[in-house]
Amino acid sequence: MSVETMKQDGLGSYETLKVERVQEKVLHVELNRPEKRNAMNAAFWREMVECFNRITQDSECRAVVLSGAGKMFSAGIDLVEMGSVFMMMEGEDTARKSWHLRKKIREYQETFTVLEKCPKPVIAAIHGACIGGGVNLISACDIRYCTQDAWFQVKEVDIGLAADVGALQRLPHAIGSRSLVNELAFTARKLMAPEAQSSGLVSRVFQDKEAMMQSAFDLAAEIASKSPVAVQGTKINLLYSRDHPVPEGLKYMATWNMSMLQTEDILKSAQAAMEKKTPKEVVYSKL
Fold first, then answer.
1. Average pLDDT across the chain, whole number
2. Contact 66, 122 (CB under 8 A)
3. What is the pTM of this model?
4. For 22, phi and psi rounded to 5 degrees?
């Protein structure tokens, strides 16, 4: 798809990302710096926010597949380009430097938080290495698939810092063992695909990238065939309940559904069931 076509389709054009409408209602967002192992430079941190804010507003899109171009998913932060951003922070004293540094960190946190704010389910499809910032990125996705050669590394302690853009906050919810999360974060050891699956970080492992991508697109199409009121409401409430006690989650759910239960999608679904039709045969309105 050409840059001009992307602009006309409302997908935008980016230096570090490639965005395509691969199927009806399904978008593919690809990290697109293969020559740099999809390392995350200044443009990437800005463009992810722009891209997913656009996807949030795209009523044609109901599911997203996120992958990396080239030999690996991502080598993480581009230290060559980004190192000076943090080491040369403006300010006359420690307090002022810290003030600006906190602001910059919060901006970078939003790069991955935007994946959670987007109500459309995001499926991460990971091949090869997923290092540092890459782990922070996938931890904010809703579903994670990987190839059998994939491996994951919370790399930040090896470069002298604690991961600060989401991995430490989200991995404990994604991986069943708090002990394993601590081990990975303290040691920066590699987590290989079989252990990633057994621990719950990924839900499926595939022989190669081609098989993984096909299954990810099939899954996205399956999700996109459902009622967008139901799917997007489900994502929002799953994330709310992750971050709140059960009683609060139930109250929020009741308030949510006191309006959402009045959707015509329920009537359409019930009618289809009576007529022995599948959800894929129902035409749900855009949301």
1. 93
2. yes
3. 0.93
4. -80, -30
